[in-house]
Amino acid sequence: MAQQLAFDLPPRRSLGRGDFFVAPSNALALAQIDGWRDWPQRKLVLVGPEGSGKTHLAHVWATETGAELVPAAELPLADVPALAATGAVAVENADRIAGYDAAEAALFHLHNLVLAEGGRLLVTARSAPHAGRCACPILPAGCRAPRRPRSIRPGMTCWRRFWSSSSPTGRSRCPPR
Fold first, then answer.
1. Which residues pair with 175 in a beta bridge?
2. How many beta carbons lie within 10 A of that of residue 1, not counting itself?
């Protein structure tokens, strides 16, 4: 029996548009990313389980828009006004900062600044926002729940708007904890 040769090749991370495999289960998510110019309130939350393609789609969007990508847990260390000034920001893993007050407050301020400056905001998370808890859940009770999601694949959904405001400026009125 012939022996198989093993090569110690480094893994290749493929996060480009051409590397994204489009299937019926993720076509809506890709369409939402492609339609970023038409996002109501200029923001989108992409929710799905680990390995469902959220990070890949965030990279596709960042490449197309020139957006800055930042893990939600690193927001307290980030220069939030400078991030907002870039005009497009993708925040990854927002669900993982629930209870981390500094990160929640930073995301709250980033949201307000990006939208006040006419920018776009993409947020990814493994769990969906629900009534009384907003943005995967990153904002305190008192924010209004998002509209009902459209299913992309089992466990993967998009919200075109993830919290709403009655403020004429479009800024959320929910204060950070």
1. none
2. 3
Q: What is the largest CA-CA distance in the chain?
A: 74
DSSP-assigned letters across all residues of 22-91:
--TTTHHHHHHHHTGGG-GGGEEEEE--TTSSHHHHHHHHHHHHT-EEEEGGGGGGS-HHHHHHTSEEEE
Residue-level pLDDT, tens digit, the chain, 177 residues: 678 888 887 776 666 656 666 678 777 888 899 999 999 889 999 888 888 888 889 999 999 999 999 999 999 999 999 999 999 999 999 988 988 889 999 999 999 999 999 999 999 998 876 533 444 333 433 333 333 344 444 344 444 334 443 333 444 434 343
Question: What is the token pair recorded at 68?
Answer: 């800055």
Domains in the chain, CATH or no CATH each: 42-159 (3.40.50.300)
Q: 54-65 vs 27-34: helix axis angle to the nearest 10? A: 20
CA dist 85 and 102 (Å) reads 20
Cα(85)–Cα(47) distance, rounded to whole angstroms? 25
